[in-house]
Design a protein that fits this description.
Number of strands of chain B: 9
Low-confidence stretches of chain B: none
Low-confidence stretches of chain A: none
Number of strands of chain A: 11
Distance between the termini of chain A: 40 Å
Mean pLDDT of chain A: 96
Shape of chain B: globular
Radius of gyration of chain A: 13 Å
Largest sheet of chain A: 7 strands, mixed
Strand content of chain A: over 45%
Strand content of chain B: over 45%
Helix content of chain B: under 10%
Distance between the termini of chain B: 36 Å
Largest interface: A-B, 17 and 24 residues
Order of helices and strands of chain A: EEEEEEEEEEE
Number of helices of chain B: 0
Oligomer: heterodimer
Mean pLDDT of chain B: 95
Radius of gyration of chain B: 13 Å
Largest sheet of chain B: 6 strands, mixed
Chain lengths: 119, 107
């Protein structure tokens, strides 16, 4: 069955960096666009980034709130998605979900990994 | 940037009743790229409806979506106890905006 498993969350100081990973199984990863979506404690969902398939050039797009600080990448050989987060701020504190993007929306999600930015 | 506004913020209903949730876009969007998600506490969101009116795999037929242009609706008939959750609409076309959510709570 389809599984997405995030890792890499934790506590980091403001200005620090963190790299999230999402390992997938149960589908052909290279065929799909992928996204990161986050949810601050007690708040709604915020789309963070997307990456196209490698065949489409691994095109990336970011929310304005993270542009220039976050970098999304993918490794099709390892069925993995990554989010490099730099210059972290308190407002980046959230659960970060990876999700599979299809023409039908985000049809599969991981369980999320918590990132806490605090001194 | 497209802004999605959901209403009401909180909806209090009893099991067996019908829920009607609204999602209004700041500009006309393609209904082909309008989705609804359900999220329960401590869980990841789950895709319910895509293309404004198509149910995702395994979603019961008491869930239905409708609308076009700027106004979209999620209807849940005959509410079951497990339906009480937070619901988000999303446009996943040129932008990927989520609405702020509607909390459906037991009255």
């Amino acid at each position: 069955q389809v599984q997405l498993v995030e890792s890499g969350g934790g506590l980091v100081k403001p200005g620090g960096s963190l790299r999230l990973s999402c390992v997938v199984s149960g589908f052909t990863f290279s065929y799909y666009y992928m996204s990161w979506i986050r949810q601050a404690p007690g708040k709604g969902l915020e789309w963070v980034s997307k990456i196209s398939t490698s065949g489409a050039g691994s095109y990336t797009k970011y929310a304005d709130s993270v542009k220039g600080r976050f970098i999304v990448s993918r490794d099709d050989a390892k069925n993995s998605l990554h989010l490099q987060m730099n210059s972290l701020r308190a407002e980046d504190t959230a659960v970060y979900y990876c999700a599979r993007a299809s023409s039908d929306g985000y049809d599969y999600w991981g369980q999320g990994t918590l990132v806490t930015v605090s001194s | 940037e497209i802004v999605l506004t959901q209403s009401p913020g909180t909806l209090s209903l009893s099991p067996g009743e019908r829920a009607t949730l609204s999602c209004r876009a700041s500009q006309s969007v393609s209904s082909s790229y309008l989705a609804w998600y359900q999220q329960k506490p401590g869980q990841a969101p789950r895709l319910l409806i895509y293309g404004a009116s198509s149910r995702a795999t395994g979603i019961p037929d008491r869930f239905s979506g409708s609308g076009s242009g700027t106004d979209f609706t999620l209807t849940i008939n005959r509410l079951e106890p497990e339906d009480f959750a937070v619901y988000y609409c999303q446009h996943y076309g040129s932008s990927y905006t989520f609405g702020q959510g509607t909390k459906l709570e037991i009255k």
